[in-house]
């Protein structure tokens, strides 16, 4: 497969793997990825990014993952993009306890601090505040969805993944194009997330409704971690896409190169089928996310 241009895709398959390596950012190089042309089309639906804060020693966190998987994902389908951010004390390595995997990232920890996450599980829906806070407890996730889901799309976002598996198998170019559908003023950045799905490692899981009822073992070494944030492309707060006044129809394209780390190339032929890339555009001042799109690395 050479110079493969991938467009859209979403799925998740089970795989067993864990890693203790930590990735430093950024791993991107704008000059290495000449921009590509995008079709002159626009989306019509505003998607939603749910960033779930969790950790492997948090016993009630699996209840949040369960709700996202069994309730909210089926309800909103591909409109809902889920990313699990392992951050805070519950995400730290606890070797004596058998929690040896490190899923924390530099950006994840910064989000955890910046948004003042104090309870787990909790999450942010497009980073729009509910009851005065962008970080929303599980009991209010449904209320937040009811408010956010009907909102119209104001900024469209397209994303292409350009991958040359023969000549450059451990990197790719991530191209993103934004198009303002209404006039807006402000500073808008784009961020890329590298996400790995279905990683198996130990998770504390309280019994019954306090945890994920599909797992009987309260300390399950075969727990499947979904939608795990592994790295940011463009840094914690991304790359500027537009600043100032933008009239309807304004469109901008930016291209970033991402290099997989040594951690992510282990068993690459197998794991790459569980790699995803998430791109989103947000208002830098308010942090509100206006559009998000997810693509599977290998279709």
Describe the structure.
The chain has helices spanning 61-76, 106-114, 141-148, 262-265, 268-271; strands spanning 4-7, 48-54, 80-86, 122-125, 136-137, 155-163, 171-180, 184-196, 199-200, 203-204, 219-220, 224-225, 228-233, 239-246, 251-259, 275-283, 289-296. It is mainly beta and 299 residues long. Strands 8, 13, 14, 16 and 17 form a five-stranded antiparallel sheet that branches. A four-stranded antiparallel sheet has the order 1-6-7-15, with no helix packed on it. A four-stranded mixed sheet has the order 3-2-4-5. β6 and β7 (171-180) form a beta hairpin.
Secondary structure tally: strands:
17
Q: If you compute it from the alpha carbons, what radius of gyration comes out, rounded to the nearest whole angstrom?
A: 19 Å
Oligomer: single chain
Distance between the first and last residues' Cα? 12 Å
User: How many helices?
Assistant: 5
Kindly name the structural category: mainly beta
Provide mean pLDDT, rounded: 90
Shape: globular
Helix amount, in percent? 10-25%
**Which band does the percent of strand residues land in?**
25-35%
The largest pleated sheet is described as: 5 strands, antiparallel
Order of SSEs: EEHEHEEHEEEEEEEEEEHHEE
Low-confidence stretches: 1-27
List keywords for this structure.
299 residues; globular; mainly beta
Write the layout of secondary structure elements.
Elements: E1 4-7, E2 48-54, H1 61-76, E3 80-86, H2 106-114, E4 122-125, E5 136-137, H3 141-148, E6 155-163, E7 171-180, E8 184-196, E9 199-200, E10 203-204, E11 219-220, E12 224-225, E13 228-233, E14 239-246, E15 251-259, H4 262-265, H5 268-271, E16 275-283, E17 289-296
Parallel strand pairs: 2-3
Antiparallel strand pairs: 1-6, 2-4, 4-5, 6-7, 7-15, 8-13, 8-14, 8-16, 9-12, 10-11, 16-17
